[in-house]
Amino acid sequence: MEIDHSFTVLLVEDSMSLGALYTEYLRAEGAKVTHVNHGEDALAEMERWQPDLLVLDIKLPDMSGMDILQKVQSNYTDITVIMITAHGTIDLAVESMKSGAFDFLVKPFDAKRLSITVRNALKQRQLVNLVAKYEQSLPKANYKGFVGESLSMQAVYKTIDCVANSKASVFIVGESGTGKEVCAHAIHHAGNRRDNAFVALNCASIPKDLIESEIFGHTKGAFTGAVANRDGAASRADGGTLFLDEICEMDLELQSKLLRFIQTGIFQKVGGTKEERVDVRFVSATNRIPWEEVKHGRFREDLFYRLHVIPIELPPLRMRGKDITLLANKLLKEYNNEEGKQFKSLSSDTKKILQSYDWPGNVRQLQNIIRQVVVLNSSDIVEASMLPPQLTSTLSRTSLVQPLIGVQSTAEDNRGLTDVVSCLSSEDGKEDTGLYQTEASLSCSGEDDKIIPLWLSEKHTIEAAIKQCDGNVPKAAALLDISASTIYRKRQSWEEQQKVTS
Ligand SMILES: Nc1ncnc2c1ncn2[C@@H]1O[C@H](COP(=O)(O)OP(=O)(O)OP(=O)(O)O)[C@@H](O)[C@H]1O
């Protein structure tokens, strides 16, 4: 391997004569050398620039070389350190190597000895850089909360890396459960705003009349219940990131106020008169097709263009190939530990089924299924027979079967939902576990021979679940393994369907 002959050295040696001698040796090797004779001076130099090599005497007039080594190890990990020691301090030099120094030179040493050590250090640096470069070019299987090495996910990671330090607004689209929130977090944590707040606001789950105050805050007495001044998400996200999840669910009137805020960075609290200015980076997400929402007048076009500067599309899980088994294995390990089970792997049949299923609920649905398998079974291999019927039946591949149990469900919830699905069937004719609603159960109301439209049967299922959850839509959504906004959207389309059919 060719040694790079233009390298920089910071030499810390208190003896002026030895310093001059070593400088000469190092220059002969092609180094650009800066010589200082105090520890404080060395630290000041490194605040301004970082040398490739630090050649450091262990004994200095103002501090120990070991203290400097420690600082370099925690603050300047790219600098390679060579210690200089006298005979009496060899033990200390050995200790320094344990603390991360590359090598040590025992005084007195000649030009040849220094040359060998410096060349070795440079070779090692080159190798480390080469490995880092190679690693960067490899597909990443884990990236800031994401698991997945498919090409489509690599493209997502690359975009996140590129946009992280910019202030440009990012618009994330993708089906429910594809990881839009993970993506928003990744953008924040990969960028230079990471030390400030990441504030997430779900525009679908906050009641319409509260959302303005949630974003902008309110003053005392602004409305009934506003007992004190309160900062909103905009103030809390100052210097950081404001994540507007389910942005297409936002009320049109509020959309125009948001537009003004995005354009100027200025807003007023609800009930307030004072203008406040903040520096916020916007990341928005939706599982709708935003342009369709614009076309139908539900999402302001001007707001769309403000927010949709850098689009990121999260691919559905079914399009991510081997990522499905990668994720399933990772989840199996995690839930295994949490539940104290002994599962070690997935059988090859299980892998095939997981790979070929549609995953309408994407990663969230995969999480639920693996959790169920782990909770309900005890073995070392996940066999295909342990998978819920929706994955193994042909009918289910058309997504007619909706899981009715979610990870967050409690025993209480399950009892209620079992009532909803009181006539369950299973493919093999054995008694059903009561956890899933199959297509057959949709005709439980004594209409066995009557085929009803799919949207209507779906409506019945969703409405029954909401009823069982005492009208709590987010809770019903969690148990149905869909997002609350999906329910709101479906309600809108049922109204339209009913208008058409009445
Ligand atoms: N690639 C991934 N690797 C690991 N975990 C993931 C991945 N994608 C999503 N998840 C996990 O799946 C769950 C759902 O992800 P997330 O909430 O980000 O999805 P979403 O697209 O925002 O869903 P929704 O539209 O319903 O709000 C979370 O627990 C998240 O941690």
From TrEMBL:
Gene3D superfamilies: 1.10.8.60, 3.40.50.2300, Homeodomain-like, P-loop containing nucleotide triphosphate hydrolases
Record PTM 4-aspartylphosphate, positions in chain: 57
Domain Sigma-54 factor interaction: 146-375
Coiled coil: none
Keyword set, alphabetical order: ATP-binding, DNA-binding, Nucleotide-binding, Phosphoprotein, Transcription, Transcription regulation, Two-component regulatory system
GO process terms (BP): phosphorelay signal transduction system; regulation of DNA-templated transcription
Cross-referenced CDD domains: AAA, REC_NtrC1-like
Occurrences of domain Response regulatory (ranges): 8-122
Alphabetical list of PROSITE patterns matching this protein: RESPONSE_REGULATORY, SIGMA54_INTERACT_2, SIGMA54_INTERACT_3, SIGMA54_INTERACT_4
A molecular-function term among this protein's GO annotations: sequence-specific DNA binding
Name assigned to this protein: Two component, sigma54 specific, transcriptional regulator, Fis family
High-level lineage: Bacteria, Pseudomonadati, Pseudomonadota, Gammaproteobacteria, Alteromonadales
